[in-house]
Amino acid sequence: MNKRRTKLPNILEGVVKRHPDGFGFFVPESPDIPDIYISRREMTGVMTNDRIKIRVIAEKATHRLRGELIEILVRSTARATGQYWAQGKGRGILHDVSHGWGEDLTAICPTHLEITEGDWVLVQIKSFPGDKGDFVEKSYRSLVMLLIRSMMR
Questions:
Q1: Cα(first)–Cα(last) distance of the chain, in Å?
Q2: CA distance 150 to 153
Q3: Residue 45 · residue 130 · CB < 8 Å
Q4: Residue 6: partners with Cβ closer than 8 Å, 6 or more residues away
Q5: Predicted TM-score (pTM) of this structure
Q6: pLDDT digits (tens, 9 = 90+) for 11-26
Q7: Which DSSP symbol is given to 62?
Q8: Alpha-carbon distance 75 to 92, whole Å?
Q9: 75, 76, 65, 78: which is closest to 12 by C-alpha?
Q10: Within its chain, how far is the Cα of 127 from the centroid?
Q11: CB atoms < 10 A from the CB of 89, how many?
Q12: Diameter of the chain by CA atoms?
């Protein structure tokens, strides 16, 4: 069966896979529907494996499919691990070296933890870009939950 010739609904739900270059591919629930390209601009605030709703657009010249993000339905990532890099008293960042988050995470460090530059930490993500309420510098806001001391020191 030729997936390109299948009549597609205008609105679809499924998961997204983020590419290291920032764009993504929407993977629909139905195996009869092809994966759909999502531009880097549309991927703002979207993480790998998030469940999203998109509007399907067929490009006129090439008939390729692309998706426009309507909404993020379910966040797939609630925690992240990375190296902590201080950005001031009580805050730092974890760089997105896996390219799965889309942005660096801002980490708020509780005062009772003694975290130093380069320590590995596990963070609980409390808010995301585009959420109603506060987020810091368009980055994911996190609360440091656990300190993992580097064994290489």
A1: 57
A2: 6
A3: yes
A4: 32, 33
A5: 0.76
A6: 999 999 999 898 999 9
A7: T
A8: 23
A9: 65
A10: 12
A11: 8
A12: 60
